[in-house]
User: Which sequence fits this backbone?
């Protein structure tokens, strides 16, 4: 610890990055990128050879023991080192690595006391999981995030080495899933940044039209990306070999839901600024509260700020009420705004009716796993999750559905104002 502090003090006046990771941190990162990934891959191949790929009991005992043994050696020295003060980015990266290990233990059911595989219930296992929890809790508390891996660790903040980024396995479908999720996330971020830039300009500004065009283009990129993912990703490989790494699991005494591809601010910024979802809706605000700590702190700040901002939709409605609907700027900007709303709605419809259905709902029904408690990353049984996703989809697409605060009527009023 003293060595690291002295290094920072000695270099704080130089144009050098004062944040360094220790050799132990680097060793752990190397294992996550190589040995850890190989063990998981070999286990997945073994599971695929079983008549029931959901039954992991007694499968790959030696590999599971190897996972625990190698993880134990690396995590114990990290905990002893007290590696929690290296700065945000290194700390967040380390949290992700510990989180990958704990998620893999959950995926392989190593952490489940089900009365089987007793040779895995060793002192090393218990010591390692306690150490991993302790380190994760320290890191999560100091960084202001959940003490487990989040989607950012595999998407927006997943550094590649020699062209290869982190993943749980070497399986082609997992890499494809992560790659396309990352593309989709950054497209949503581009759209959200364009909409944020509209706020200080106002809905009548000439450049607001340009920004809306940019937002629409980014959302169209999401639509194309979703279609490619739908076409290329193998359903069984995703359902049986990728999805299980995103299960809820305990860190310390508390269970945390799994990482979700929507755990970033951009998609909710779009919801709020378009006005399709509102922060005063108890359902939607609860959704935001539940995901805050799964986002990086800078994302949390952006989203909190957007929760108090007036939406662009309300801005256009106010202009209409003031009788400005016959102005050229109004018709031009509003027409593009409505196209952005339609594009955002299309991404939601794709996600719910195409991606969720193909990769989760249909295979779960086929395998008679619909009511299994740990099927979803969010925790609730699949039917409960699907109802929540349907409601969110209806909000984002401004659907004419009773019982939800959809903006269908307001969108219809704005569309009608273009014809007047």
Assistant:
């Amino acid at each position: 610890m003293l060595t690291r502090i002295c290094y920072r003090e000695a270099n704080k006046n130089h144009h050098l990055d004062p944040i360094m990771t220790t050799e132990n941190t680097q060793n752990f990162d190397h294992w996550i990128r190589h040995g850890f990934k190989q063990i998981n891959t070999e286990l997945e191949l073994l599971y695929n050879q079983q008549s029931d790929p959901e039954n992991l009991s007694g499968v790959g005992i030696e590999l599971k023991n190897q996972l625990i043994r190698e993880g134990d050696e690396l995590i114990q020295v990290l905990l002893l080192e007290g590696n929690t003060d290296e700065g945000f980015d290194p700390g967040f990266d380390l949290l992700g690595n510990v989180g990958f290990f704990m998620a893999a233990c959950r995926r392989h059911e190593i952490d489940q006391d089900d009365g089987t595989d007793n040779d895995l219930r060793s002192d090393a296992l218990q010591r390692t999981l306690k150490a991993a929890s302790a380190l994760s809790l320290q890191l999560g508390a100091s960084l202001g995030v959940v003490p487990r891996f989040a989607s950012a660790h595999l998407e927006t903040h997943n550094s590649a080495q020699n062209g290869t980024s982190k993943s749980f396995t070497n399986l082609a479908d997992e890499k494809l899933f992560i790659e396309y999720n990352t593309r989709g996330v950054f497209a949503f971020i581009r759209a959200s940044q364009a909409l944020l830039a509209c706020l200080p300009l106002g809905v009548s500004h000439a450049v607001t039209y340009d920004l809306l065009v940019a937002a629409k283009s980014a959302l169209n990129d999401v639509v194309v990306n979703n279609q490619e993912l739908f076409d290329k990703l193998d359903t069984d490989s995703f359902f049986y070999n990728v999805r299980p790494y995103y299960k809820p699991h305990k860190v310390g005494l508390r269970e945390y839901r799994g990482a979700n591809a929507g755990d970033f601010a951009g998609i909710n910024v779009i919801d709020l600024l378009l006005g399709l979802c509102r922060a005063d809706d108890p359902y939607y605000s609860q959704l935001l509260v539940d995901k805050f700590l799964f986002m990086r702190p800078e994302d949390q700040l952006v989203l909190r700020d957007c929760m108090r901002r007036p939406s662009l939709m309300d801005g256009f409605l106010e202009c209409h009420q003031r009788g400005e609907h016959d102005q050229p700027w109004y018709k031009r900007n509003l027409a593009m705004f409505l196209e952005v709303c339609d594009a955002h709605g299309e991404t939601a419809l794709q996600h719910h009716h195409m991606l969720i259905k193909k990769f989760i709902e249909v295979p779960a029904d086929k395998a008679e796993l619909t009511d299994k408690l740990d099927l979803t990353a969010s925790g609730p049984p699949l039917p409960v999750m699907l109802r929540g996703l349907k409601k969110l989809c209806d909000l984002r697409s401004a659907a004419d559905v009773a019982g939800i605060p959809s903006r269908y009527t307001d969108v219809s009023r704005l569309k009608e104002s273009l014809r007047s």
About this structure: Residues 2 and 255 are 35 Å apart (CA to CA). The first helix runs from residue 2 to 11.
